[in-house]
Amino acid sequence: MGKTLSEKILSEKSGTDARAGDIVIAPVDLVFAQDTTGPLTIRQFKEMKHSSLANPQRTVLFLDHAVPSPNRQLSNDHTFLRRFAEETGCLIFEGGCGICHQLVAEMFASPGDIIVGADSHTVTAGGLGAFATGMGSSDIAIVFALGKTWFRVPESFKITIEGRFPRRVGAKDLVLHLIGALEADGATYKALEFDGGTIARMTISDRLTIANMAVEAGAKVGIFPSDGVTRRYLTSRGRVNKYKAVYPDVDAEYERAVAIDVAELEPMVAVPHTVDSVVPARMLTGTKVDQVFIGTCTNGRLEDLAVAASILKSKKCHPSVRLLVAPASQQVLTTALRAGYIETLIAAGAILLPPGCAACFGLHQGVLGDNEVCLSTANRNFKGRMGNPDASIYLASPATAAAAAITGEITDPRELS
Amino acid sequence: MTSSTVLKGKAFKFGDDISTDHIIPGRYSHLRSNLSELAKHVMEDANPNFAHKVASGDLIVAGKNFGLGSSREHAALVIKLAGVSGILAKSVARIFYRNAINQGLPVLICDTDKIDDGDEIEVNLSKGEIINHTNGACLTFGKLPRVMLNILQAGGLIPYIREYGDFII
Lengths: 417, 169
Ligand code: SF4
What we know:
heterodimer, A: alpha/beta, Aconitase, domain 3, five-stranded parallel sheet, 13 helices, B: Aconitase, domain 4, seven-stranded mixed sheet, binds iron/sulfur cluster
């Protein structure tokens, strides 16, 4: 019997014949924490009385969630992380470099890698064929020290994607549709493995968006096989030597198969307060929005800003809407500047935020007021997520977000010129 | 066994899909290095009175997909700091599950429809049974993988690794 992508990667790394349900111990290629999970990770690490890191050059701290720091407690947490990096020689990315998952994709992730991070959206790197998953601080502290961890080999769902996307419908609509179909716990502990003719035409940006949200169905990983698109991306990042073909066996066994014809998709929106309450954008016409947020590890990439800029070009935001834009990384920002996207967005009325998580999780830079409504390109709309349990968050694509910024209400972006 | 094998307390009942943002919202991230302050906000967005009412030994009883969302281990940690002795749920999100066990906080998968808010609950971890003293119901729960059981028995992941130096599976 053949193996799924997860079984293959975990077999190779653990040196065992890993099958779904087995528990294996495997070395980790990259381990990281960010500024809100890092301090506890370091405290747990110190409590182990383990003085050195297993692999300092593959241990990374990212300052991305609370940058620039909004208060002294978080500033002190940042100092604590910087000091740890000095002491141990691990890598650290300062505030303004970008969101951890974007930087992992740009600089580290390669097909067949095992990546663990103290952040649930570590799954994002599955877009590049890595077995990448989020863990808590204690688990990550142990990986800091030992360079390995235990995994339960997940059963896999095969998600076959066929067809061509209609105009202004894309990867975010697809993944929202998928989460709606699987439901928020439909893939708990499972791997989502993507397959089908459409993925060969998907950019790495699209794949990262889809893998990013695998965790919203409870999945442990969301993983794409590697191909020419992956190779070209790695080449553009100067690490083509890391390219490896990873794909499942044809006779692999899947727990469940889901087929999606993207030609039938339309712009989708997740309504408050769960990610799996998904409806077509057109059914929400008339829902007023106070804030539109374009950014995050889901949709803060160059391709996302390009879509938003193309819709907002020579237009103005609705007077009652605040449009916040946060590029996912410094490189996204500089490239978008050169391409003119940033100028277009600012001319339309956008507030540009520094590369980082920004308004995504309610700490600063865009906290919602009571009864306010935000349309966000993020991945979560839980109650309280953007800093106020009495506010509402809708999730959609950059195209749908840009359309709402113009009209002041949720709008099917295909209705705009 | 470091962690107690019998858990006894009152049930605090919650519904489905209680996320880590309900358990400890991101807006309190600045308190993450001040755990006693952070713990005052435990479950705030699901039940604002929880932190005042919960007593040592009490149990959180939830529907499906408890703890979905963020990887913040603080979610499991503040529940433990509040004195909660265990979590009973129909299902639990993956990262939260690992985090709770890593903190030495038992998480048991069972049919929580048979437990109401305020019921007196007794869990016997070694026998694998849950007794609802209020309505007399007796429940069983799914077994943990051995590696998780050992971590729980050591009182959490850090003590486990300090004891064994490595993972034993
Ligand atoms: S952008 Fe949002 S979802 Fe992504 S890592 Fe930052 S806080 Fe988490």
